[in-house]
Amino acid sequence: MRRTDHPAGTVHRLIVDGKNLANNLLGDPITRVVDVYVPAGHDGGGLPLLVDLVGFTAGGPAHTNWKGFGENVPERLDRLISSGAMPPVVVAFPDCFTRLGGNQYVNSAVMGNWEDFLVDEMLPAVETRFKCGGKERRGVFGKSSGGFGALMHALRRSDIWAAAASHSGDAGFEQLYLPEFPETLRALAACGLSIEAWFKAFEAKPKASEKDTLVVMILAQAASFDPDPSAFLGLRLPVDLETCELIEDRWANWLAFDPARLAETHGRNIANLKAFYLDCGTADQYNILYGSRRIHRTLDRLGIAHHYEEFDDNHTAVDYRMDVSLPIIAKAIS
C-alpha cells in the first residue's frame, strides 16, 4: 500500500561488480545491488544524482522497501518532488551491508575499500545507465553510520561530491564510543574475552539481542578504523580486554576518523560544496549531539557556510528529517 497519492517514480535495480571490495577478510560478496529511483515523468537524463547511505544494520534496499506506518524513501521523494518542495533528482540506494552488520563507507583492509567502491564503481555505473549526475551535480546523504559516511565524503572527497547532508552522523568519538567499551568487554567475558569465540556464538544464535547488536557495532567500527589483518576477521579493540584501559596508539587510529577532529584539518573542503547540511537530536542516546556541535562550531570559526539544526528527538526513527535536508541539497545541485 502506497502512503502518498503523488505520481510514483520508478525504482530500478542495478548490479554493480565491486572490484574494490575483493579480498575483504569477511568473505562478503563483491557484487552489489544498487536500487535507483527515477522520478515520475523522467528517465533520469540530465537530472542531478543523490546517493543514500543507510545506517548500521541496514542496506540501501531497506529504504526502497515497503514501510509500515510511514513512507519509504521513494514515496517521500514522490511527495517532495510532486509538491514542488524539491526539484526532481535521481537517487541511488547502494547495498553496503556487511557480515559485521553495516558500514562506515571508508576504505578498510577488513571490510573492503567501500569509499573507492562508491566513488569509482557505483557512481559511474549509475551515471552511465541513467545519464544523470556528473561533476557539480552529485550529492550524498545519510543517517547515523550513513551520516558518518556523508560527513567523511564531504570532508575528504569534495572533488567528487557537490553537496552533502548528515543526520546524526557519528562524531565526537570520546562521547560516542568510550562509553560502549565496558559493556562490550562484559559481553566478551562470557566467551573468555575472545572476539572469535563471541562472534562465532553470535552468528550461531537464532535471535540477536539488542546488546549483541551494540557489540557487533563496536566490532564493525574496529574493522573500519583500526583493522588488524593478522587477527580473527581483522578485529581488535583499542582497549585492554581485562582492564578496559585505552591502548593509545590504537585509539589514535580511531580518532583519525572522527569528523569532529577532521573538521579542524579538513573543514575547509566543505567550502567547495554547494551545500552542506548537518543535524542531530538533542536527546541523541549515543551522545552524537556533542560531536555535531563541535563540527558546527569549527565550521563557524572557519567562516564556512553550512546549515546546522538541532531537533527535539533522539537517534531513532528520524527519517522525517529528510524533509528538511533533501530539498536543500537537491536545490543546490540542480
Which secondary structure elements does this structure contain, and how are they paired or packed?
Layout: E1 10-17, E2 31-38, E3 49-53, H1 73-82, E4 90-94, E5 107-108, E6 112-113, H2 114-130, E7 138-143, H3 145-156, E8 163-167, H4 173-176, H5 181-189, H6 195-204, H7 210-225, H8 248-255, H9 259-266, E9 275-281, H10 288-302, E10 307-311, H11 322-332
Parallel strand pairs: 3-4, 3-7, 7-8, 8-9, 9-10
Antiparallel strand pairs: 1-2, 2-4, 5-6
Helix pairs in contact: 3-9, 5-7, 9-10
Structure write-up:
The protein is α/β, with parallel strands linked by helices. It has two domains: 10-172 and 258-332, Alpha/Beta hydrolase fold, catalytic domain (Rossmann fold), CATH 3.40.50; 175-255, no CATH class. Helices cover 36% and strands 16% of the residues. The chain is built from eleven helices and ten strands. The protein has helices at 73-82, 114-130, 145-156, 173-176, 181-189, 195-204, 210-225, 248-255, 259-266, 288-302, 322-332; strands spanning 10-17, 31-38, 49-53, 90-94, 107-108, 112-113, 138-143, 163-167, 275-281, 307-311. The strands form two sheets. It has an eight-stranded mixed sheet, sandwiched between helices. The protein has a two-stranded antiparallel sheet with strand order 5-6. Helix 10 links the parallel strand 9 (275-281) and strand 10. Helix 5 (181-189) crosses helix 7. It is globular. The relative contact order is 0.14. The model has no long low-confidence stretch (mean pLDDT 97).
